[in-house]
Amino acid sequence: MTNLESPSTAMASPVVEHFEATSVFVNGHYPRRRGVVLLLGVLGGFLLTVVWSAPFVDRAIGGTVADGLLGHDAEDTAITGIGAGVVFAFVSGLAGTFTACNIAVFGAVAPLAGSAGGWWNRVRAVLRPLQWMAAGMVVVSAAYGVVVGILGTDMPQFDTAPSQPGRLPARLVQSMVVFGVIGLVMIYLGLAVLGLVRDPLARIAARFPNAPLIFFGGLIGAFLIGRPFPLFRKLFRDIAEEGNPLYAAGAFVLQSIGNILILAVLLILTVVAGGRLQRWLRADPRRVSVLSASALLIVGVFTFLYWDVRLLAMRDIIPWYPVAPWV
Predict the structure, then answer these.
(1) Burial (0-12, 13-18, 19+ Cβ within 10 Å), 117
(2) FRET label pair with 212: which of 109, 190, 308, 316, CA 20 to 30 Å apart?
(3) Where are the alpha helices (DSSP H) in the chain?
(4) Which of 241, 326, 323 is nearest to 49 (CA)?
């Protein structure tokens, strides 16, 4: 007797067009309404630049967290010695989790949200890629730490001169270049997830499947190269004046680990507790693509516009950029 599938079952399992998966970010399941996802991602990133208040996030949130963990005023109390510097590095990294220069991490963790299997298998499926991302992050942040330990007092980030209207100090030019490039990379990856451009990581991923994760971890480590977060600049100056490359490398690695620790824990908890979410994502793989593309586009557009367009308006170099009244 032939076992025929009932009409209701057939309707519950839609045929999903699938192209070849080329990397961990591009799974080959392209959304039907790619134009809508693109439009909403760009609009979301733009609106985030309009409402984002750096003083509130950097000081009211970041400063309060750092003060509470250290037990004293993090910005005004001097760093006394290498031991205190190591602690300050990790704490200031945690405090800077949700700053404008760190928000790009959200785009990296989105593709990991659709892990399948039991809760322990889901945790391991998230931990493995996080380890590869951490490897790329550690290499870049440690290498930059060595550079700062040797040349730090001569670098733009060491400068404390106040910004003047109509002019950009070298440290902000450095931030614009670094975060502008990071933003454009994330936008391009978001377009690749939608199938609108070729996956730039496809060739290397074919030989080294974890290379895209290492690359993205390197982008996270590169946040330190442009970061103007007040607590990081305080750490930077202490490291530069100390002139110890080993201390600098260790402190910058701890700073980067602090940046992603909270997000990694939240991701793991979501994967463990979000069984319904996992089932919903696995029911149609295109949903993972929508989530990944949206995250990459929102944070990519935000990072580029915030650091390369809005910054110019805030320094009176271009005439206007829309911002909320509380900014």
Answers:
(1) exposed
(2) 308
(3) 7-12, 34-51, 54-55, 64-70, 82-95, 105-109, 119-151, 170-193, 202-207, 211-226, 230-242, 245-273, 275-283, 286-305, 311-314
(4) 323
Residue 284 CB partners (closer than 8 Å, separation 6+): 14, 16, 29
More confidently predicted of 27 and 242: 242
The pLDDT of residue 166:
79
Q: For residue range 252-268, list pLDDT tens digits in order.
A: 999 999 888 887 887 77
- Neighbouring residues of 246: CB distance < 8 A, sequence distance ≥ 6: 149
Here the tokens at position 152 are 């730090």
Single-letter amino acid code for the residue at 217 = G
pLDDT tens-digit readout, 107-152: 556 556 555 556 677 677 778 888 888 899 999 999 999 999 999 9
Phi-psi region at 166: left, alpha or beta (left = phi > 0; alpha = psi -120 to 50):
left
Structure token pair of residue 182: 């990071």
As given in the structure block, the two tokens for residue 159 are 């400068």
User: Contact at 8 Å (CB) between 218 and 140?
Assistant: yes
Residue 223 in contact with residue 104, Cβ under 8 Å?
yes
67 membership: H or E segment, kind and range? helix 64-70
